[in-house]
Amino acid sequence: MKKITAYFRKHPLNLLLLAIPLALMAFWLEWGELWVFILSALAIVPLAGYIGESTEALTFYTGPRIGGLLNATLGNAAELIITIVAIREGLLDLVKASITGSILGNVLLVLGMAFLLGGLRHGEQRFDSKHAGRNAILLLLAVIALAIPSLFSHSIGPDTSLPVEALSLGVAATMIVLYAAGLIYGYKTTGMQVDGPLEAPVGGNAELVRIVQKSHRTDDKGIHSPWSLRTALIVLGLATVGVAVLSELLVGAVEPVVASLGISEFFVGIILIPIIGNVAEHLVAVKVAMLNQMDLGVEIAIASSLQVALFVAPILVFISLLMGNPLQLIFNQFELLALIVGVLIAVFVSQDGESNWLEGAELLAVYVILALAFFLLPF
Amino acid sequence: MKKITAYFRKHPLNLLLLAIPLALMAFWLEWGELWVFILSALAIVPLAGYIGESTEALTFYTGPRIGGLLNATLGNAAELIITIVAIREGLLDLVKASITGSILGNVLLVLGMAFLLGGLRHGEQRFDSKHAGRNAILLLLAVIALAIPSLFSHSIGPDTSLPVEALSLGVAATMIVLYAAGLIYGYKTTGMQVDGPLEAPVGGNAELVRIVQKSHRTDDKGIHSPWSLRTALIVLGLATVGVAVLSELLVGAVEPVVASLGISEFFVGIILIPIIGNVAEHLVAVKVAMLNQMDLGVEIAIASSLQVALFVAPILVFISLLMGNPLQLIFNQFELLALIVGVLIAVFVSQDGESNWLEGAELLAVYVILALAFFLLPF
Amino acid sequence: MKKITAYFRKHPLNLLLLAIPLALMAFWLEWGELWVFILSALAIVPLAGYIGESTEALTFYTGPRIGGLLNATLGNAAELIITIVAIREGLLDLVKASITGSILGNVLLVLGMAFLLGGLRHGEQRFDSKHAGRNAILLLLAVIALAIPSLFSHSIGPDTSLPVEALSLGVAATMIVLYAAGLIYGYKTTGMQVDGPLEAPVGGNAELVRIVQKSHRTDDKGIHSPWSLRTALIVLGLATVGVAVLSELLVGAVEPVVASLGISEFFVGIILIPIIGNVAEHLVAVKVAMLNQMDLGVEIAIASSLQVALFVAPILVFISLLMGNPLQLIFNQFELLALIVGVLIAVFVSQDGESNWLEGAELLAVYVILALAFFLLPF
């Protein structure tokens, strides 16, 4: 019992595991859609964290190459599962909103929190602007490529014709190729030096494990024993199944909840879904910022956005086509604006090489105003 | 008599004080609205300068904290008074245009003149790109936040509904909080080092006084005697009253003048009003650039824009609500473009850390083309 | 015979000279418009290269000042001739598309190829970010100025009224003044140091000649004999006449080819025409990148864009007015977006000061996606 208390004190987020049975009860016993929505959302948070941790553990056994690939594929697994379920239900607007929201959340909310809390504790913080800036430019290019079909389709009118679908597929294919190129680039340069773009999630989290461990040394008795290969695989399997089941409940409850609360489906997609799927990762970025490892904090935020733009979005285009419910990369005017604004901010902020709490407060202010706008206005 | 001649030779702008009685005569003797408009516009210029000087003098007595607050509040007093009068008259488009024009004027006209004239005299000039770049990023974030309600309202159609008003107020409140945060940040960092963002107007002008004095040492007999507290208060009071009275005349004449000359109210708001309210400040930025103090010149231009975005605009939203004539932060498509373009330019130019006369000429070219467009086209 | 083989092995592009007689035959013998189009396009490529080479040779005799002017005027001669012929035929959309495409081609295709191929051979490459960044900012300002009339005309509706024409002329005049200012700035600073903006094409190509020669030293027997003045003038004259004649064939064939192939005139203008007119120059930029002279490669790409924005576009406005077929600087929504995106990318990429093949691949990806969009969608 004492051990359990200690465990939850160290990992308070895992208390949310209790939401799993509650969510299932809410569904079977028909407590109402709102309870299903809230409880399944809460329950996904720790499971997404477990997918991340078990992937991390697996990379200890696979070596860096396959590990990088694993990380790249499973890094956004929770979000991928939720959006795939949403595609099957035909909630394509929700899916596109959550792609946008995921990028925005990383560059405004996560970076903002990291700058604010890190800055309050450590004053002005510095980070390697060369590396961060390079990733930010890749992100800018990726988002511009992602935005091109939308810009075209707006200029030819609302009907989603064959050329728009062809263009969507062309863009998605190009992105996947670039993503692969990025992984190759990462392998090649990390052979010599450890600063390949896109390589971040791998090297990043491994380094993070070390850093976070150092700060908990007293608890861990100095020795780090990662999960065994078997444990890692079992945890990964269970967490994935859990996320899949809960995503069904969550997505099924979206429409009734939206209707009863009077909030927009767009708000759910752009603010709530990305937060649910990424809380664990977000906390890590903020934690390292507070440990004055701002290099790593900026890296996680930008590399994570990059992964969504270059990997998650294109994969969803192809998966949706296979599922017979084709997702076209046509973002609405507001998603486009938010994306471009968010990414420009990321570029400027990262080229600067310095952060302070005021800059963090400004990033959060932009996020809060955007969220307020999404909340207030009908779509 | 000789002293008066010498005074006006040193402060040629103050010759415009003669326009005060003329403006009043034009109004009472009904010389025509055009004369009232021109004369009251000219008369406001030196009075706005006196408000600035007396505020500066007051900060010698209040200490830096309250001095900073004073400067922050009174730094754009002339413009605030004009726009408040305009709000009462219901000229809300004029007010929004003058907010846009004030930011544009600072980053294109003032910076352009400073780079051009400074560069012609000193060749390539350098300035601290770190500090200028940091302020420029804050400005970018502020302008983006300011633009969000407009982007939303354009996407939901022309009717100004309740959510748009709520969003305007939300943005204004967030901006004021950020402005306060910026002042706090400034106090904290200037305790240790003298480079807090937003702190610029205070430290800036004080430093300026010293620099400008040095260059006039022969006139001043080496000793600087700022105004007494009483003089400062009396000058501040008189100048404020003067600006208020003349603003009545100016704003009252806008509509007939616009109608008779065939220029647009928009042109008056975006080009003329900001110039009238800021000439004195603008001249200071150009003067320091010509003294090869480009750090200070860039600082004045960007910090002044920042103050308009973070303080003047939100304050006007609240004041207009109290006056029963609510100003919504809905800029037209063109104001938005001009704002974003202007601020992006400010960011790029300031991150560069170097200026030359060609860069100044390009900034002025953009301003001239914008002004030509505002002049030529109907709104 | 052996000499001729050796010559063509060294200058394989000149094999395309064979397309000149074929194009003429295709026209006289009525092989069909498609053949005329393809053959005249191919034939223009080496002739454009000869115009460039003979201009370069002339500058050896004129001295740097007039040489700079010559280069500035004749640097885009082939493109100017094609577009002037197109203006006479009333293909104004084609002309505007080719202005956009020329800037895009330089900052995405050329820079992308240079980064990709240079990076694959040399790994990470560095270049002088100060100089490149300064030119990129000038380009940004120029493109913004160029975009202002379009933004206005979109906001007042589709009819091209007198104010829009006046604004177009005002912008064109301002640009020419800025271009002249840039040349003066270049002369002044190159007196002392060799890095004036806009000066690039002159110093650039001269330096290039030296670099390329070094790499071919074995062929050239160590001594460089430029063309005689007479040869240069004759080659220039013949090549210009050749381009003019072939442009007639090319432009005359555009409309039937577009109709029969189902591609858009817009695609021809934005992708094909710029490539035809600039292949020779593009190859030079890529060549120097592969020789690890990335400074020069970036310089050529950005300076060439700058020349189109500040010189070619305004000149076409005035020439078209004289020809009674006034070209207004009203770009469509898509050209504007592409321009702004392209130039922002140029700014970010050049401020960075480093390049690698992944960055090159991303630039090419954006270009490919844009080209795909232009190809797929109707305009």
Sketch the major β-sheet of chain A.
Answer: 2 strands, antiparallel
* Average of per-residue pLDDT values of chain A: 79
Name the biggest interface.
Answer: A-B, 29 and 32 residues
Described by the principal axes of the CA atoms, the overall outline of chain A is globular
- Percent strand of chain A equals under 5%
Structural class of chain A: mainly alpha
For this structure, the quaternary state is homotrimer
Total number of beta strands of chain A: 2
For the biggest β-sheet of chain A, the strand order reads 1-2
Element order of chain A: H for helix, E for strand? HHHHHEHHHHHHHHEH
Helix percent of chain A reads over 70%
Q: Low-confidence stretches of chain A at least 5 residues in length (pLDDT < 50)? A: 191-207, 209-225
* Rounded radius of gyration of chain A (Å): 20 Å
Task: Give the termini separation of chain A.
Answer: 49 Å
Give the number of helices of chain A: 14
Describe, in plain words, how this protein is organized in 3D.
The structure is a homotrimer of 379-residue chains. Helices cover 82% and strands 1% of the residues of chain A. With 379 residues, the first copy, chain A, is mainly α. The first copy, chain A, has a two-stranded antiparallel ribbon with strand order 1-2. The longest helix of chain A has 42 residues, at 33-74. Chains in contact: A-B, A-C, B-C. The B-C interface holds B 332-334, 337, 341, 344-345, 348-349, 351-352, 354, 356-359, 361-363, 365-366, 368-370, 372-373, 376-378 and C 130, 133-134, 137-138, 140-142, 144-145, 148-149, 151-152, 155-156, 163-164, 166-167, 170-171, 174-175, 177-178, 181-182, 185, 197, 347, 351.
